[in-house]
Amino acid sequence: MTSSAVLPASTHAGPVHLNVRDLSGTATFYATLLGLTATEQSSSNVTLSASGTPLLHLHAAPDLPRAPVSRPGLYHTAFLLPTRADLGRWLAHAAQLGLRIGSGDHLVSEAFYLSDPEGNGIEVYADRPRDTWTWRDGQVQMDTKAVDAAAVLAAAGIDPTTLDGAVAFAAPQGTTVGHVHLKVGSAAQAARWYADTLGLDVVADLGSAAFLSWGGYHHHVGLNEWHSAGQPAPAVPAAGLAGVTFHTQDLTNLRAHLAGRADVQDAGDHLTLHDPWGNRVTVQQG
Fold it and tell me: Which PANTHER family does its entry note (predicted)?
């Protein structure tokens, strides 16, 4: 079976699971930052959603230590907003919250970066139209340049100097987890594993980082070794990433592709396994 036949081209990122030391505080942070709603809530778990679509599952882990930056795991969860105007409304909201954020114009998208109170990375971004992306020899052309923040705000009708026109932010319908970016011990090894196991295409290879996708997207999975080069799978648990999810229309080919592997758990409507650095990966049908 070729890698391109493992999962349908429409396969995409789903909700991210985080183990957090302060469940209430972290849930409030994400709800405020992104305008998400708690659709399930207990003393041990909170699910945060946009228009009913779960984006984050937070699990209480008050006794776990905070993960060091060199630990393989989550680099960031990337929340994709439907339009540039939505991104402008969010940017004004973040400015009014007084948050310190970074940015990057990646040619295919415009993105802003920050971390949650427990050190988990966050990207909030909007894609440029696909017909403006440049491809060469199967590789999508990406870069990191300065974002024209004033133009992003203006796209939402917001004055970049005074923030006049800013309104209370709620995650618009269509907000999703656009991609997940992971820290690994070897970007090359991780790229091979994700390509061979899940049928992702490597669409950008930077040596110390790799970006992979299904169906010609700029990336559903990012992998880098910038802080974690040479690190093995962690031997003890820590707060941070508990698992990533991908949604697909059909598990038939993936199930056949992984048949006989002892590390695969098959629950009928989803398959779960772990990458070489212990990151739990679930592929959910439907």
Answer: CATECHOL-2,3-DIOXYGENASE
